[in-house]
Amino acid sequence: MLYLLIISFLLHLVCFYFIILLYQRLKQQEPFDKEKTLDEMEEMLLAYTTEMKENNEKIARIVSRKLNNQTAGPKPDDRSSAAEPDESEREQEEPDGEIIAFRTEQDSAEQKEYTPPLPDEGKAVRVDTSPQSRVLSLHNEGYTINEIARKLNMGTGEVELMIKFYK
Q: Taking the complete model, does pTM exceed 0.70, yes or no?
C-alpha cells in the first residue's frame, strides 16, 4: 500500500510540474488581439478587391478594343480579330466603362433545350477543380505564395487570402 501511495505522490508532483510549465508558456504567448486580426483581414480584403478592380479594368479595355475592332470590320490579313458569326453572348460598354453581357431570345431558348453530352467510354473524364482547391493543393505541396500565383495566373493577394481563409 505504501508503494502505491509513493507512486501516486510522484505522479502528482510530475503533473504539477507540467501544469506549471504549461501555465508559463501560456503567459509568454502574445494575447489574442482581435483588433489586429480584424485590421489584417481588412487590409487583405482591400488588397484583393483593388487587385480585382485592376483586373476588371484590364479586361474591360481588352473587350472594348475587340468591340472596336469588330465595328471597324475585319482586316483581310488579320483573321484573329474577326469574331465568329454565331457568337452567343455579346457585350456592350456603357459610358462609365462597365461592361454588360446580354443574351438574345434565341440564345436563351437554346439554353433551355440543352442536354449535357454523355461521356465516351474510351475517353478519360477530365475534372475541373476550383481555383481554391488548386491553390490549397499547391500550398500543401510546399509551393510559396508567389509561385502559386505565377502558376495559376492569379494575384498574390488573392492566393494569400484563400490560404488565410482556409486556415
A: no
Q: For residue 134, what are the contacts with CB-CB under 8 A and spacing of at least 6?
A: 152
Nearest to 83 by CA among 93, 69, 94: 69
Kindly tell me the burial class for residue 147, based on how many C-beta atoms sit within 10 Å of its own C-beta (0-12, 13-18, 19 or more): middle
Mean pLDDT (whole number) for 143-149: 92
Asked which of 7-11, 17-21, 90-94, 156-160 is least confident by mean pLDDT, the reply is 90-94
- DSSP character string of 57-75: HHHHHHHHHHHHHHHH---
Q: What pairing do the DSSP bridges indicate for beta strands 99-103 and 89-93?
A: antiparallel
Cα angle 8-14-17, degrees, rounded to a multiple of 5: 140
